[in-house]
Amino acid sequence: MGGILDLIKENETGVLVAPRDSDQIASSVIRLLQDPAFSNQLGERLRREVFDDFTEDLMVKKIHCLYQELLAEKGLRDDKFLCLPVDQNCVNISQHNSNN
């Protein structure tokens, strides 16, 4: 679970500027205003990434897996659930075992 740096990739899904650097902020805003095609391209890429990677279902699964990992570290894990690190999906073990 990250933040803005996980979501915004320089010149792909947005423009990153240094905190409190008013010259860099101003030049980035001017660039976006002067190049609407570039601005639209950034916006479309970001929109696609958000809709693909941050769906409600996926975020719930990621949060659940995070909780399970934290519980496991404390020795309090609910063993009814298994987090699969490959795709961060959690699977109920009883369902998982009945399928094998």
For the report, how would you describe the main beta sheet?
Answer: 2 strands, antiparallel
**Strand and helix order:** HHHHEEH
How many beta-strand runs?
A: 2
Mean of pLDDT:
78
Q: What number of structural domains do the residues give?
A: 2
Approximately how much helix is present in the residues? Answer: 55-70%
Q: What would the principal axes of the Cα set say about the shape?
A: elongated
What does this entry look like structurally?
The protein has 100 residues and is mostly helical. The protein folds into 2 domains: 4-53, no CATH class; 56-98, no CATH class. 59% of the residues lie in helices and 8% in strands. The protein has helices spanning 4-7, 22-34, 36-53, 56-73, 93-98; strands at residues 81-84, 89-92. It has a two-stranded antiparallel sheet. Strand 1 and strand 2 (89-92) form a beta hairpin. The longest helix has 18 residues, at 36-53. The radius of gyration is 20 Å and the shape is elongated. The two termini are 31 Å apart.
What brief labels describe this structure?
2 domains; elongated; disordered C terminus; 100 residues; 8% strand; 5 helices; two-stranded antiparallel sheet; 59% helix; mainly alpha
Give the helix/strand layout.
Elements lengths: L3 H4 L14 H13 L1 H18 L2 H18 L7 E4 L4 E4 H6 L2
Antiparallel strand pairs: 1-2
Write a brief caption for the model.
With 100 residues, this protein is mainly alpha-helical.
